[in-house]
Write a structure and sequence with these properties.
Blueprint lengths: L1 H17 L20 H6 L12 H4 L9 E8 L4 H11 L3 H15 L10 E4 L4 H7 L3 H13 L2 E2 L4 E3 L11 H8 L3 E3 L9 E9 L3 H10 L6 E10 L2
Parallel strand pairs: 1-7, 2-3, 2-6, 6-7
Antiparallel strand pairs: 4-5
Helix pairs in contact: 4-5, 5-7, 8-9
């Protein structure tokens, strides 16, 4: 067994030399112990720090629209920047570990914030089943999985469902985005969420229309608090 393990380790090391895993942000080779991001990119990610402030640009998106306990985003999204490359790898290139690793990093930070420390349950924005089958996974669930791991919270992917397919939100106005997701989301067997602090999560927040529609549904559950967290927020 020890010989087999040694041979397997040697073969893996050889493959890593010939076909090195690359950083999803800068495409530099990753070293042992590095996952989706190299240490340089991990240290230089454009963190927002919004989870330390109840009043921040993400929470302000929802003022007067939906009653949230707190809202924040991990990173700032700039066009053609590293965060855009990370989101693209997660959403369109099948690199699910980008979402999980981002969730672990941010979950460790959220756990230290009084606004988010008592989160019980992580709920990802759902995809319609047909779209999830087409993509093979839900990128918001990948992020939620990492958050749940770091925050020692439950991951709930069944209580909130998307009842119909919507057209892409890209290039829609705030009003059109809201109309596009109005009455799209439904609750199913959500009794177990009563009284919980729910963290609703997605990959990127722009106008907040999708998150708002989901939060409105979750707030129908008795005695819940709903907070929001995303991997990134569009640069305001």
């Amino acid at each position: 067994m020890h010989v087999f393990n040694g041979l397997r380790t040697g073969w893996c090391d050889f493959l890593a030399l010939v076909y090195p895993k690359l950083c999803m942000a800068c495409e530099a080779p990753l070293y042992k112990g590095e996952h989706s991001f190299c240490l340089h990119c991990r240290a230089g990610l454009p963190r927002t720090g919004y989870h330390h402030k109840a009043d921040n640009p993400v929470s302000r998106l929802f003022y007067g629209r939906v009653r949230l306990h707190a809202a924040a985003a991990f990173l700032t999204f700039h066009k053609a920047g590293k965060v855009q490359r990370l989101i693209h790898q997660l959403k369109y290139k099948g690199q699910q570990e980008v979402g999980v690793d981002a969730g672990v990093l941010y979950g460790n930070e959220l756990r230290e914030s009084p606004l988010f420390a008592d989160v019980d349950t992580i709920v990802p924005i759902p995809l319609h089943p047909s779209r999830e089958r087409q993509r093979g996974y839900n990128q918001a669930t990948c992020f939620g999985r990492g958050l749940a791991q770091a925050m020692h919270a439950e991951l709930d992917t069944t209580s909130l469902i998307r009842a119909s397919v919507t057209s892409t939100q890209t290039r829609k106005s705030r009003f059109d985005r809201w109309k596009n997701v109005e009455e799209v989301f439904l609750l199913r067997n959500a009794d177990t969420l009563a009284g919980k602090h729910i963290l609703l999560v997605d990959d990127v927040v722009t106008t907040g229309a999708t998150l708002e529609a989901c939060a409105q549904e979750l707030l129908k559950i008795p005695n819940v608090r709903v907070s929001v967290a995303t991997i990134a927020v569009a640069n305001f």
